[in-house]
Automatic annotation (TrEMBL):
Required co-factors: heme
Keyword line: Heme, Iron, Metal-binding, Monooxygenase, Oxidoreductase
Pfam families in UniProt: p450 (PF00067)
A biological-process GO annotation: mycotoxin biosynthetic process
PROSITE patterns: CYTOCHROME_P450
Record-linked SUPFAM superfamilies: Cytochrome P450
Superkingdom of origin: Eukaryota
Protein's UniProt name: Cytochrome P450
Keyword Transmembrane helix: no
Family indicated by similarity: Belongs to the cytochrome P450 family.
GO molecular function, one term: monooxygenase activity
Stretches of the chain forming a coiled coil according to its record: none
Originating organism: Penicillium roqueforti (strain FM164)
Length: 494
């Protein structure tokens, strides 16, 4: 023993350094030229280190970059030493489908918080949570939420009318207004401002967690001290701030459990499927924070995309409004909000929402999964067990073999008799056991809101240049400045 210590003691620091460099070099050579994924093409840096994908996320452009990388290298691209991005649509069912055996990858691991439905990697925990949360999204519960949604939409319309009253038209940033309106019961619409700075907090948190998820576990806790790039400490501070705001909101609501029929009121009443008792306070708080982000940022970003695109396309807006005028004829009462049943059967409205989610998906990224034991053949290629894989939604939605002229926004592709075939390659909410639990809720909220807005207002974009976006886990427009003009006088005031 003492001989080993003596030998180690005699090695100089220069030798230690050379040995470490040699190990790193050998590791790189193995990864790039000899490892089991060596035959898969991709940027050289991505084969060497996961820092390549971390940088794409850090600079909020992962999906945009991957779209180009797949155009350059084909259907399989190595995006990290142990991570393959696959853009073949047949990989979707094989990876994300029921019984595929692929589970969520280390990207989702967050040891600092209570696991939630969205991020838990444990199949049993996920099953238990999905069991008690699914009823919240049943058809019956959706019907009960509708009046609450209508109330929020009414408040939003009131805001527009108040601002329009003097000038006849109003300039506003839709990006922010949606955020005020949805899922965040913090009174933003009453105050007409985000007094908690919640929107900036959610954005910073989303961006940092998206990058952090690709770093090795060992580095994640120390990134809050990486002051060389404020992106990291600021984003991680935002994560703690959101937790504090969510916890405070929970305690604010706890004594008025039945004051509103929303998702939080459902969590208060939910029963643990194992014990039959109520959920723990810790679990309700964690899930409700997750709903604040997943349930409102997503719908508001998607509706902003619709407004951005439709406000730049007078012909699409004309088609949409002509359909809405037939379905909801005449001048509406001042408190009118479109009902879901009617909105849901309007072909142009549904085509506009679908085409927007195809063309510019809010969830554009490849969702990381781990290849199960024994490996799997995906889209004709053997993928060894333990390999991380993902299918980027943006690429699937821009696949020219399915969507003719994929880079053109064209609602007519959803209006033809053969359009249902396109649904097989349309996955804005993912699929399988980890598909979005809130997709019906989201569809209802978005159709109701968009039908109401476009029935009542003409919307014109003030920016002529392209729209800038930033991608965290979801893609968001940096702004959506528009001029809003009422289409009719208000019935109770004429
Ligand atoms: C346009 C709106 C929305 C989009 C595009 C969207 C998209 C997605 C996607 C792609 C996933 C899969 C994520 C993954 O595998 O990592 C997901 C999961 C999830 N979404 Fe949504 N979502 C939307 C609205 C909502 C709403 C309104 C809620 C709740 C009210 C919600 C709650 C969730 C939850 C809890 C999960 C995790 C499900 C699980 O793992 O079992 N989402 N969503």
């Amino acid at each position: 023993m003492s001989t080993v210590v003596e030998i180690l003691g005699n090695i100089s620091s220069a030798d230690w350094l050379s040995a470490s460099l040699a190990c790193i070099l050998l590791h790189i050579i193995y990864n790039v030229w000899f490892g089991p994924l060596a035959h898969i093409p991709g940027p050289f840096l991505a084969k060497v280190s996961s820092l390549w994908i971390v940088f794409q996320c850090r600079y909020t452009r992962r999906s945009e970059t991957l779209l180009k990388q797949h155009q350059k290298y084909g259907n399989f691209v190595r995006v990290a030493p142990n991570h393959i991005s696959i853009s073949d649509p047949s990989a979707l069912e094989a990876i994300y489908g029921h019984k595929s055996g692929f589970n969520k990858g280390p990207f989702y691991e967050d040891k600092s918080i209570e696991p939630v439905l969205f991020n838990t990697r444990d199949v049993q925990i996920h099953h238990r949570k999905r069991k008690y949360l699914s009823p919240a999204f049943s058809a019956k519960n959706l019907n009960e939420y509708e009046p609450y949604m209508a109330m929020q939409i009414r408040k939003l319309m009131e805001c527009f009318h108040r601002r329009i009253e003097n000038s006849g038209t109003v300039q506003l940033d839709f990006n922010e207004y949606w955020d005020y309106a949805f899922g965040k019961p913090f009174g933003f619409l009453d105050k007409e401002r985000d007094h908690l700075n919640l929107i900036a907090i959610i954005d910073a948190r989303g961006e940092v967690l998206n990058a952090l998820g690709h770093l090795p576990q060992i580095l994640r806790p120390i990134m809050k001290y990486f002051f060389l790039d404020p992106f990291w400490p600021n984003g991680l501070r935002a994560t703690s701030n959101l937790a504090a705001i969510g916890t405070q909101a929970y305690y604010g609501r706890k004594d008025q459990k039945n004051s509103r029929h929303d998702l939080l009121s459902f969590l208060f009443k939910a029963k643990d499927p194992e014990s039959g008792g109520p959920l723990s306070e810790k679990e309700i708080i964690a899930e409700s924070i997750s709903f604040i982000v997943g349930g409102s940022d997503t719908t508001s970003s998607t509706m902003t995309n619709v407004v951005d695109i439709v406000s730049r396309s007078p012909e699409v807006q004309r088609q949409l409004q002509s359909e809405l005028d037939q379905a909801f004829p005449g001048v509406m009462e001042s408190d009118w909000v479109a009902d879901f049943q009617t909105a849901n059967r309007l072909p142009v409205l549904n085509a506009v929402l679908r085409e927007t989610m195809r063309f510019k998906p809010t969830s554009a990224t490849g969702l990381e999964r781990v290849t199960p034991a024994g490996g799997k053949i995906i889209a004709g290629m053997f993928i060894p067990e333990g390999t991380l894989v993902s299918v980027p939604t943006l690429n699937v939605h821009h696949n020219p073999a399915v969507f003719v002229r994929p880079d053109e926004y064209d609602i007519s592709r959803w209006l033809g008799s053969d359009s249902s075939a396109l649904l097989d390659s349309f996955y804005p909410f993912s699929l399988g056991p980890r598909a979005c639990i809130g997709r019906n809720f989201a569809w209802m909220e978005m159709l109701k809101t968009l039908a109401t807005v476009f029935k009542l207002f003409i919307v014109e974009r003030t920016r002529t240049l392209g729209t800038e976006v930033r991608e965290g886990f979801f893609v968001k427009n940096s702004e959506c400045n528009v001029v809003v003009k009422p289409r009719f006088g208000r019935k109770d005031r004429t």
